[in-house]
Design goal:
Blueprint (H helix, E strand, L loop, with lengths): L21 H13 L4 H21 L5 H12 L6 H8 L14
GO molecular function: DNA binding
Family: Belongs to the TacA antitoxin family.
Pfam family, one: TacA1
Amino acid sequence: MARHVATPRPTKSQRIEVRATERQEMVLKQAAAATDRTMTDFILASAVERAERILAERRRFAGAPEQYDEFLRLLDEPLESTDKFEKLWSRPTPFGQSFTPKPR
């Protein structure tokens, strides 16, 4: 027979306060009731889900294969030489060797 072990829930110690219009409150209450959650649980879960989605969009990029090929081409393209680059490349590296970019 399988035993179910309850995992402890993290303590909620932070308070978040928001102001809402009457309509916003009504919609949130209805949605919370429809999902059989408290309003607090519904609002917090919805906000965290949306926040995670936004953060994920900033870490991951999607595009067509042609866009990816163009992206790689631009990465491989050499940069124009400037005085700042020349000065940087003439400095010794921490490894005791000078760096000279390979011509393309």
